[in-house]
Amino acid sequence: MPGIGNDIVALSAIDVERTNQYRFFSKIIVGQEQQLYNDTLASALAFEHFVWLAWSMKESAYKCMQRYQHNLVFSPSNVLIGEVQLPANNAKPPMEGIGFDNLLVCKSQLNFRGQHLFSRSIITAQYIVSVVNDTNDFSNTCWRVKKIGSNDTEDQSLAVRDMLLHKLHELYPADEFKIEKSIFGFPVLLKNGAEADFPVTFAHHDHYAGYAFIPDI
Amino acid sequence: MTREEILNELKSVFAPYTTNKEMLANINDQTDLITDLKINSANLVDIIIDAEAKYNIEIDYDSADKMINVGSCIDVISEKLNQK
Questions:
Q1: With contact defined as beta carbons under 8 Å apart, do A61 and A5 qualify?
Q2: Which residues contact B56 (CB under 8 A, 6 or more apart)?
Q3: Is B54 on the interface with A (CB under 8 A)?
Q4: Fewer CB near the last or first residue (10 Å), C or N of chain B?
Q5: What is the pLDDT of residues B6-32, one digit of tens each?
Q6: What is the structure's pLDDT at A108?
Q7: How many CB pairs (< 8 A) connect A and B?
């Protein structure tokens, strides 16, 4: 089963002043990542956005790897960002798709304890969303971000599950799907009563929620 | 400080980041910050920073990684306080 993870950061919910404090951002990015920002990204990306971009990629990487290492603990310092290519085009990116428009996304490579991982991220004025996999093939990745009315955690969780089940029904009209949670915390998709052979990943933060998966069709 | 004193003080550290006030009032060592208190992972760094400020301690990467439930938060804070 391929690995996949996603994460969303709602930028209206972040504390910009706190994010820019060394004591805070040094818990998320390490020295070489600060250097990467200074050397290649500072002219095009606000530092607080880089910090949260890094967070979204690192948490996505953790979700991706947790499929293989169930007792993994999220540790931002264990995921190193090796390269970041910002979007070539500033047009407004879509909020859903199958695959990513490479001109509109931020492409990155990550290293988790020697394992190479790959990221596609969308940075808007409202949110940053990342999807990470271990193959660097995003062509069939089905993903979506949606603004939802409630910022209550339970409501967000229900909304993202409904959104995913709706999409699965579109793609697989003859099949029955159910989403459960593993004892390790990640979502498990059941297709006609048996675990589906593709993973799904959810994220939500404040008023934004999203999913990603690689359908087997 | 005793574990019970730290546990009671941690309620005020967690309070800004959870809407599950009933669970917060009844936290114990096993209470998970994300699955039980419904704290968004994006706020975990806030909690570490707030705990550092409250106890005038520094929580390094390895210790921060352990802070996934109330008991492990108390362990880390106790350890850092004892090192002062």
A1: yes
A2: B84
A3: no
A4: C
A5: 999 999 999 999 988 999 999 999 999
A6: 97
A7: 40
Looking at the DSSP bridge assignments, the partners of residue A50 are none
CA angle, residues A66, A21, A15, in degrees to nearest 5: 70
Do B19 and A152 make contact, defined as CB atoms within 8 angstroms? yes
The string of pLDDT tens digits covering residues A97-134 is 999 988 899 999 999 999 999 999 999 999 999 999 99
The structure tokens listed for A171 are: 């793609």
Burial class of A54 by CB neighbour count within 10 A (0 to 12, 13 to 18, 19+)? buried
Asked if the ipTM is above 0.90, the reply is no
First-last CA distance in chain B: 13
pTM (predicted TM-score) = 0.93
Q: Domain B3-83 carries which CATH code? A: 1.10.1200.10
Q: Specify the 3-state DSSP secondary structure of A23.
A: helix
Residue A151's pLDDT is: 78
